[in-house]
Design brief:
The complex is a heterodimer of chains A (about 250) and B (about 350). Chain A has about 250 residues and is of the alpha/beta class. Chain A is about 35% helix and about 25% strand. In chain A, strand 7, helix 6 and strand 8 form a beta-alpha-beta unit. In chain A, helix 3 packs parallel to helix 5. The longest helix of chain A is centred in the last third of the chain and has 17 residues. The mean pLDDT of chain A is about 90. With about 350 residues, chain B is mainly α. Chain B has one domain: Orthogonal Bundle (ABC transporter involved in vitamin B12 uptake, BtuC), CATH 1.10.3470. Chain B has 14 helices and no strands. Chain B starts with a helix and ends with a helix. The chains are: A alpha/beta (about 250), B mainly alpha (about 350). At the A-B interface, helix 2, strand 6 and helix 3 of A face helix 1, helix 9 and helix 10 of B.
Chain lengths: ~250, ~350
């Protein structure tokens, strides 16, 4: 287990709502750097709502979300973009836009009013592409690529944003089995090597328990956040997903 | 990464950069050429030396000089500005709404302008305005109408997060205004109705020299604002959510884009009437020619191609004495169909 005191993202007395429905009820949790965390829970329990709240996209919550010790409500948008990056479920395919240009957009929080890229920015873009294994795709356009490749490009874009916290909403959906594991391994490696706090929602229990350092589980308006092994032992996953009922009715 | 792939990468870079520079050079030269051709085109044939003399204040018959400077030069400048303005504003709307069918009028700018004009044409005789006042009045009324629409849309967008809802509101709003305009038309007298219908046909020739002093600064202001929208537009390519997580202040950017579009499309509509299809077609054509989606390239490139096509439309409309709107539609519709079909081909080939 890595150092868990190194908390960069914290929820305090946090309640989230979907419309008027309460999704999380007075939750406290913290997430550290250098760790990958899987966010799991049944459909409709509010995984996306939570992620979007923590990324500053959803303000329909009470309590505080703090990044690097500061309430995100007090952090300006351009500053926030240097702390938290986000990869949504949206499949974005802009024709005529090269992968490198997409990744370069991740440098927006650091570039000037017209988005001029310094040589250092270009280096970070190339490095991000290589980190996700897409170095040879720099001049390909997004509309000629597979879902897995596009997903990697969007992750490279988040990497180029150079933030301590990275969140991804269901990055493994739309991918085939080998690609899902490949992606999960990539995310864990990024968390460890680049000392990032990476949180992603997923429905792949196997990926969550095997590939992530910790698991955050949404259950009955509560958030249970434990290291992966402990989560396995505690039996929350088994209880919640009723595996026995499905497999041997 | 192998050294070999570095070399290929750099070659691709150099190739595409050279290609872009060449294309900018070519389109710039084309605009210049068309501008000169436009000066030559007209019912009176005037020689090159006369045109040169008229423009440089040299020896030239007074009547000919007046034709060149007061009519042809003004009209060519208006065509140039109108094409650039409408195309840039169409590009902004297509990126903002992430919709290939968006154009400068998608927010209801032309409906707002037509309501202003309809009310003015109906009301002006009652107020006892003279004919000379009326051309200024029409432009003013159209601009007020367009700006009023902007204010309403901007106010709505403060409360509404989803850009698609704003698009639908804009379309419904303009349909509603069109209905009101129809009622006004139904109630108006024949002469007023004709004046209104002629305005809707569009004309590049109604702008007088002194009106140009309003038109030029307004369009330049709109284009300068458009340059300021380049980075927001690039971020918006990935959608508003991504743009927000990359630090974009969406509300401010939207207002900037709305303001720029109203200055560009609103001013042109006020002085020339609602000119169709240029703003919708030219961003697509430009994206295809330049093979790029970066607005640092697209904004200036669209301005150039838009200016070129508008000059062509003006030359054609002068040759055959047609209303300019029918020419832009006849040229614009095949272009849109061609773009749609060739994109469809590109997709099926994969």
């Amino acid at each position: 287990m890595r150092n868990i005191d190194n908390n960069i993202l914290q929820l305090r007395d946090f309640s989230a709502f979907y419309g008027s429905r309460i999704i999380l009820d007075r939750v406290d949790a913290s997430f550290g750097r250098g760790m990958s965390t899987a966010l799991i829970g049944r459909n409709g329990t509010g995984k996306s709502t939570l992620l979007r709240a923590m990324a500053g996209l959803n303000k329909n919550y009470t309590g505080t979300v703090s990044v690097d010790g500061r309430d995100i409500k007090d952090i300006r948008g351009d500053r926030m973009a240097r702390l938290v990056s986000f990869v949504t479920t949206e499949r974005t395919r802009v024709s005529n836009l090269m992968c490198r240009d997409v990744v370069a957009l991740g440098r927006a929080p650091y570039t000037n009013w017209i988005g001029h890229m310094q040589p250092a920015d270009m280096d970070i873009v190339e490095e991000s592409l290589h980190r996700v294994g897409m170095g040879d795709y720099a001049t390909r356009t997004m509309d000629t690529m597979s879902d897995g490749e596009c997903q990697r490009i969007m992750i490279a874009r988040a990497l180029a944003q150079d933030t301590p916290v990275m969140m991804l909403d269901e990055p493994t959906s739309f991918l085939d089995l080998p690609n899902r594991y490949e992606l999960a391994r990539l995310l864990s490696r990024l968390a460890h090597d680049a000392d990032k706090c990476i949180i992603y929602s997923t429905h792949e229990l196997d990926i969550a328990t095997r590939m992530c350092d910790s698991i955050a589980l949404i259950d009955n308006q509560k958030l249970i956040h434990l290291p992966a092994e402990e989560m396995n032992r505690a039996g929350h996953i088994k209880r919640l997903f009723n595996l026995d009922d499905i497999l041997c009715p | 990464m192998t050294p070999r792939s570095t070399i290929t990468l750099n070659l691709t870079d150099v190739y595409s950069k050279r290609r872009t520079i060449t294309l900018f050079g070519l389109s710039g030269a084309l605009v210049l050429l068309l501008f000169v051709v436009d000066l030559f085109t007209g019912s009176v044939s005037i020689t090159a030396s006369q045109i040169w003399n008229a423009l440089t204040g040299g020896d030239c018959p007074e009547a000919t000089a007046r034709i060149i400077i007061d009519i042809r030069l003004v009209k060519a400048l208006v065509a140039l500005l109108a094409g650039a303005a409408l195309s840039v504003s169409g590009l902004q709307m297509q990126t903002l709404f992430r919709n290939p069918l968006a154009g400068p009028y998608v927010l209801g700018i032309s409906s707002g302008a037509s309501l202003g004009v309809a009310l003015f044409i109906m009301g002006a005789p009652a107020l006892g305005m003279s004919a000379i006042m009326s051309s200024v009045g029409i432009a003013g009324a159209a601009w007020i109408g367009a700006a009023a629409v902007l204010v309403i849309i901007a106010a709505a967008s403060r409360r509404i997060k989803d850009i698609m809802v704003i698009l639908i509101l804009g379309m419904m709003f303009s349909s509603g205004i069109s209905a009101v305009v129809q009622i006004i038309q139904y109630l108006s007298r024949e002469s007023a109705l004709k004046a209104y219908v002629i305005w809707t046909m569009g004309s590049l020739g109604d702008v007088t020299t002194w009106q140009l002093y309003i038109l030029i600064p307004a369009i330049i202001a709109g284009l300068v604002l458009a340059i300021a929208t380049i980075k927001p537009l690039n971020l918006l390519l990935l959608g508003e959510e991504y743009a927000v997580t990359m630090g974009l202040n969406v509300r401010r950017s939207r207002n900037l884009i709305f303001l720029s579009t109203t200055l560009l499309a609103g001013t042109i509509t006020a002085f020339c009437g609602p000119i169709g299809f240029i703003g919708l077609a030219m961003p697509h054509v430009t994206r295809m020619i330049f093979r790029d989606s970066d607005h640092r390239i697209l904004i200036p490139a669209t301005a150039l191609t838009g200016a070129a096509i508008m000059l062509i439309c003006d030359i054609v409309s002068k040759q055959y004495t047609l209303p300019v709107n029918s020419v832009t539609s006849m040229l614009g519709i095949p272009v849109v169909i061609w773009v749609v079909l060739s994109n469809a081909n590109a997709f099926s080939k994969r």
